[in-house]
Write a structure and sequence with these properties.
Blueprint: H1 2-8, H2 12-30
Helix pairs in contact: 1-2
């Protein structure tokens, strides 16, 4: 999360949200929902 925050120049809260959304999107893709 820290590396994502530094890379995107955003707050830790936003970075954590981005990571969470990415994980959900990946899970959906693996299950064939996307």
């Amino acid at each position: 999360v820290l590396s994502e925050s530094l890379k995107s120049k955003v707050s830790m809260r936003v970075a954590a949200y981005i990571v969470a959304v990415a994980r959900v999107a990946e899970a959906m893709r693996l299950r064939g929902w996307g």
